[in-house]
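yo

u said u wanted the structure for the complex thing, so here. seqs first:
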Amino acid sequence: MSGRLIVVSNRIPTEAQPSGGLVVALHDCLTTEGGVWIGTSGTPVEKPEPKLREIARGDYTRMVFDISPSEQEGYYLGYANSVLWPLFHRRADLVHLRPDYADNYLAVNARLADMLAEFAGPDDLLWIHDYHFLPLAKLLRDRGVSCRIGFFLHIPFPVVADILALPQANDLKDWVAAYDVFGVQTKGDVGRVMAHYRDDPHAIFDTQGHMVALNNGAAPRHFPIGIDAREFASLAQTHEADISLALTLGQKLVLGVDRLDYSKGLVHRFEGFAAYLDARKPDTPKATLLQIAPPSREDVDAYRDIRTELEQTAGTINGAHSELDWTPIRYIRRAVDRDMLAGVYRRADVAMVTPLADGMNLVAKEFVAAQNPENPGVLILSHFAGAAEQLTDALMVNPYDTAEVGAAVEQALTMPRSERQDRHAALFDNVMREDISWWTQSYLSALRGTS
Ligand code: GDG
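structre next:
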């Protein structure tokens, strides 16, 4: 097969050096493989033309298309981030249904399908990313596109009971079944996709109850996304010395790094940290929780609400526990430079990665890669992060159980060096082995039909 690799995601990098998990991963993949990366232009225009525009060419080509202000509202802020995102993160209570949201979502996908139908040849490989474009393969097949089309879902696949809150629940079955490869992050996600197709004519199950085919394509498969662990480890080593030792006033450093999003469990995390403060024994080190939380999707109400709640919670805990020379929670509501971030990871004694729902969570992997193997920090990891399937040597917690989280903080701060080293060695081995190029190659060989 000699066609091009065509990658589609909502956001594509507009700067030379991309940042952020998905964007960095796909940039590395396309730099190696070559091909075309297509996404939205990022600036809504009144009358979007149904045309792909090339914005850069190098190791690979970048192309964009426009959406209108009302599509930004209905497709992006609406259906993608106020319907699918909360629903897929087990927050059906936050789903905001409006008919114009679904209309805009389908209109943007249909316009993109028209453009791709003209652009893609039969030998090309189309790789579609994330919940913004679930209907694309179905729309492309309706337009006669015959090339192989794969999808990768970066966020969790929902349970059947939650999917029923979606007016398009039946359409979702058709959308998913139209892909040649439907890729998800974890085995748990594969199980939930299969549950969605029980008794559905699209799916064929074997006698043991495993799905063997979905429509004409393969059964859904899991491809846990990784990071460029080697590069990140060396970044952390280089920038460790940049981090001022005054950072925690001589106390132990506990770190959290998350987009400010309700799925990341930040309020529960602060309450879990407060449980450690409440129960702290006199000889347990004093620790400061440094929470880096750059804001995201601030035009969506639920994101404004979580920010207010988090700031109130931090204020209450600090009011109760601060001393003249110690503020237990430091909270930074802006992005930190990636080099500095790598150095802070390495400097941290403990990382709290405690989402209530998360497709994978790259922060957990970055923290592991950044550690000094001689004196590594401890990873506290939620059962509900996709990374929990791979990083089984972390201290696992139920993020809703604040007493358990508090006890894990205490255990992490007092863990003997030999146990820290053993746990870290096992985690590091996984993060290095199942890295970003392993992920890319696994997915692409499935999409090419060779595995
Ligand atoms: C989605 C899924 C899945 C964060 N703060 C700063 C900063 N970051 C970087 C981290 C990391 C990335 O952003 C966050 O990645 P996550 O995986 O943790 O989370 P999502 O953004 O929700 O990503 C997730 C992922 O897609 C990939 O498939 O793992 O489950 O939700 O790389 O380092 N980077 C900088 N400054 C910050 O302040 N420079």
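The mean pLDDT is 92. The two ends are 15 Å apart (CA to CA).
cya
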